[in-house]
Design brief:
11% strand; alpha+beta; 6-stranded mixed beta sheet; single chain
Length: 281
């Protein structure tokens, strides 16, 4: 069976899930949940991911992830691969932890960001005999969004709350109300082609872009689609006295993410982003 197409571009938003092999648990104890979140933190820092909502269930997880650098597949290889290694080592097991590859759905941020955010944190409530309220499940983004726990840097709680109000307390109240109003709503009725969740215009736009990309690549010999990027260390040494120029040179190769560039040049990825943005204007 052929693998599903991966639609990746800067600023894309995805609903991502992975399920345990044969529906077996991927978290056996609380330490496993913490271990997964540690690996997720590493993935977000390394690949410049933004998480809008998440929920870790016993045998699967849900992420609502935005990729400023268009690198979902790279980040997922790290996330699922590293966690599997750690889990297997801890529990003295071998073999696959997940059931096949992860599943990703491309999401229209303008239309479905809020809908998916509440769908994700309501998972433990929809599951039988787990909890009656999302507040009772500690392994989701709900307690961070409501301010009961301090949010990690990679979780965009403020961005989500700003969609309700600029006043934090009022925004949290409206968010809590909004979440509970989502019980019984099935957002997957609007899923198209198993990979798109968005307006008709959104879906058609990305179908067109995908078909154009496939046609373009089919007309170019594989070795000519992109020249191999110059080694990052070589770029750094060449521009050691002009780091801004070096960061720009590394970026325009198309071979490195902003997080990878920032790591080599000793700055935060947001600094790289500002330098690149200024270069583009």
């Amino acid at each position: 069976m052929s693998r599903p197409l991966r639609l990746e571009y800067a600023g894309a938003l995805y609903h991502v899930t992975s399920r345990g092999n044969e529906r077996n648990p991927i978290y056996r104890d609380e330490a496993d949940f913490d271990m997964y979140l540690d690996v997720l933190t590493q993935a977000c820092e390394r690949f410049n991911w933004i998480i809008h909502a998440y929920c870790l269930m016993t045998n699967h997880y849900h992420l609502l992830v935005e990729t400023p650098d268009g690198n979902l597949s790279k980040g997922m290889r790290h996330l699922n691969g590293v966690y599997t290694q750690k889990f297997n080592r801890k529990h003295k097991r071998v073999g696959h932890l997940y059931q096949g590859r992860y599943k990703s759905i491309l999401v229209d941020k303008d239309t479905y960001l809020l809908e998916l955010s509440r769908y994700i944190v309501l998972n433990p409530v929809r599951a039988k005999n787990m909890v009656e309220h999302p507040q009772q499940w500690k392994w989701s983004s709900y307690l961070y969004t409501t301010g009961e726990l301090n949010s990690p840097n990679w979780l965009a709680t403020n961005a989500l709350l700003l969609l309700f109000s600029k006043k934090k307390k009022y925004a949290i109240k409206k968010y809590q109300e909004f979440v509970m109003q989502g019980l019984g709503i099935d957002i997957w009725d609007n899923l198209q082609s198993q990979i798109y969740l968005g307006s008709h215009e959104f879906v058609e736009k990305h179908k067109l872009a995908l078909s154009e990309d496939i046609q373009l690549l089919s007309e170019i010999p594989h070795k000519q689609t992109r020249r191999k990027a110059k080694p990052m260390l070589e770029i750094y040494k060449k521009n050691v006295n002009n780091k801004k120029q070096g960061m720009i040179e590394a970026y325009v190769t198309g071979g490195y993410t902003m997080s990878e560039i920032g790591s080599v040049f000793g700055v935060h990825y947001s600094t790289v982003s500002r330098v690149v943005a200024k270069f583009k204007t």
